[in-house]
Specification:
It is a single chain. By secondary structure, the protein is mainly α. It has one domain: Ferritin (Up-down Bundle). Helices cover 72% and strands 0% of the residues. The chain contains six helices and no strands. It has helices spanning 3-31, 36-62, 87-115, 120-150, 154-173, 192-213. α2 (36-62) packs antiparallel against α4, α3 (87-115) runs antiparallel to α4 and α5 (154-173) runs antiparallel to α6 (192-213). It binds fe (ii) ion (2 copies).
Length: 218
């Protein structure tokens, strides 16, 4: 498979996985009865991620990808966080990990990927993703605050976990990206050094200060 196809295949599966994980979180949030506004945004995010997956799949096909090469690993489509804990704490972990780390870093990363893209299917997918990611980021921090208000020991819970979430996201994007010859900014691809730079900058300038404001050192 060409590198461009591989990247868009990975993106398709990652976006679909985001839809599944957010839908599972939404059910937890219904069970623990968070605010209707929070539920409403969570519900919208599920369908945003389905749209991202669909647009990424179209980019993958436009790049010559074979639809049979998009196998979903079903066991990765469930939230693995703190399975023994009450749902409030599980949701707190997911907010911190998937949204306050994952979606917060996604904002500058996708903006950078969009900047040099010139191929129409890539532009269409990246434009939609860029448009939605800021809302997804905001949802994470709002949900975190709503849960912290309810959980007297929530800050202690986060202090035991959030540093690892931040470390994981830094590692995930360190060396991530395309190094092969057919790497193509026109298709929304970026070299590993840029992934690393943008991620580190986002952690230093956005993620760390926002956790610190809530009493959590990461
Ligand atoms: Fe997405
Ligand atoms: Fe997202």
């Amino acid at each position: 498979m060409r590198h461009i196809q591989k990247v868009w295949a990975q993106r398709t599966l990652a976006e679909y996985r985001s839809a599944c994980l957010t839908a599972e979180l939404q059910h937890w949030l219904l069970v623990i009865a968070v605010s209707p506004d929070t539920l409403d945004v969570c519900h919208r995010i599920v369908m945003d991620e389905v749209a991202h997956a669909e647009l990424s799949r179209e980019a993958f096909l436009a790049a010559g990808g074979d639809p049979a090469a998009l196998p979903l690993a079903r066991d990765t489509l469930f939230l693995p966080h703190d399975v023994e804990a009450p749902l409030e704490y599980r949701a707190l972990s997911v907010a911190a990990d998937v949204f306050c780390c994952g979606e917060t870093v996604a904002v500058p990363l996708f903006l950078a990927l969009r900047e040099d893209a010139t191929e129409a299917p890539a532009i269409e997918a990246l434009d939609r993703i860029v448009r939605d990611e800021a809302t997804h980021r905001a949802f994470g921090w709002t949900l975190l605050d709503e849960l912290l208000e309810r959980l007297p020991d929530g800050v202690v819970w986060l202090q035991q976990r959030a540093p690892e979430f931040v470390r994981r996201i830094a590692d995930a994007y360190d060396g991530y990206g395309s190094t092969t010859v057919d790497q193509g900014p026109e298709w929304g691809l970026m070299p590993p050094v840029r992934y690393g730079e943008i991620t580190r900058q986002c952690i230093d300038e956005v993620i760390r200060p926002r956790f610190a404001k809530r009493g959590v050192t990461v």
